[in-house]
Amino acid sequence: MKKLKIKGFSPTANRQGTGKINSNVTGEDISGVYDYGQVDDPEKYPLIKDTADEIIKNLRVLKDKPLEEVINQLELRFGLENIPIKSIEDSLWHQLTHDEHIGQSVQGYKITMKDDGTGKIRIPHISFSSDLDYLDGFLNRLIDKLENLGIVKRVIQTK
């Protein structure tokens, strides 16, 4: 049987905490299916119909404007911005844990200003999990790394 080789595929290519499912072939985000039939369900989606009405009203007011201006106005009026996400791969957390078998998932984001003050950035809120005995071993390996770097001196001994 011929083995299929996919050019340029990286299983983690787009896993930057987007919360989306990734294609197992290309690694690209897969968009979910929006159920338009649920828009009129006030218990499930209380604001969607009002929001859609507001967008339509804005489109009618801006109908003679160029599309890019309409988009800019809608983004401004609805407070939508394309705020970049801080890279997990560039973090100290990733540097110290990338070779460990610790499950992690992005639970959400906080929005703050970039360190250099040039704009906003979304900081991932990460949850991690592992068996307690593995975490004990991980902490010992982490302390060893920090000791080797001369950052800390071990003061706690585990049994």
Describe the structure.
The chain has helices at 48-61, 67-78, 92-97, 132-148; strands at residues 21-22, 29-30, 103-113, 120-129. The chain is elongated, with a radius of gyration of 23 Å. The model is unreliable at 4-14 (pLDDT under 50). It is 31% helix and 16% strand. Strands 1-2 form a two-stranded antiparallel ribbon. A two-stranded antiparallel sheet has the order 3-4. It folds into two domains: 21-78, no CATH class; 92-148, no CATH class. With 159 residues, it is an alpha+beta fold. The N and C termini lie far apart (51 Å).
Task: Please specify the SSE layout and strand pairing.
Layout: E1 21-22, E2 29-30, H1 48-61, H2 67-78, H3 92-97, E3 103-113, E4 120-129, H4 132-148
Antiparallel strand pairs: 1-2, 3-4
